[in-house]
Design a protein that fits this description.
Length: about 120
């Protein structure tokens, strides 16, 4: 996302109806989520990416020091959605939202697939 905002600032003709001040507002909105992004990145880099215990990060406080709450993750996704939609709407008038799929949606899909002869 940062690179997209960088490109728009470098070449404003990419999204001519989005002013530089609006790009700065979008950047500030994402900057407010920087702490949750850092914590998620830490989990990805130090925990999830190293499932093999032989290569796991030896810090037993990883989860305690880098708490990621459901609310924090949802806020991050909503903010990303908002920024993408703002840029998309300014570029071609369309809104392209990202949406998460809940567990119930997945189980319903599997049930439907299993029910088909």
């Amino acid at each position: 996302m940062w690179r997209l905002l960088d490109e728009i600032e470098r070449c404003p003709t990419l999204v001519p109806s989005l002013s530089i001040s609006e790009v700065k507002q979008q950047r500030a909105q994402l900057q407010a989520d920087n702490d949750i992004l850092r914590r998620i990145r830490t989990h990805r880099n130090k925990g999830i990416a190293h499932v093999d215990e032989r290569h796991a990060w030896p810090d037993s406080h990883l989860w305690q020091d880098n708490i990621v709450t459901v609310g924090g993750a949802k806020k991050l996704l909503e903010d990303l959605k908002s920024v993408f939609n703002k840029i998309s709407a300014a570029q071609d008038g369309r809104i392209w939202s990202l949406e998460t799929i809940g567990m119930k949606d997945t189980s319903q899909l599997l049930e439907e697939l299993l029910a088909k002869p």
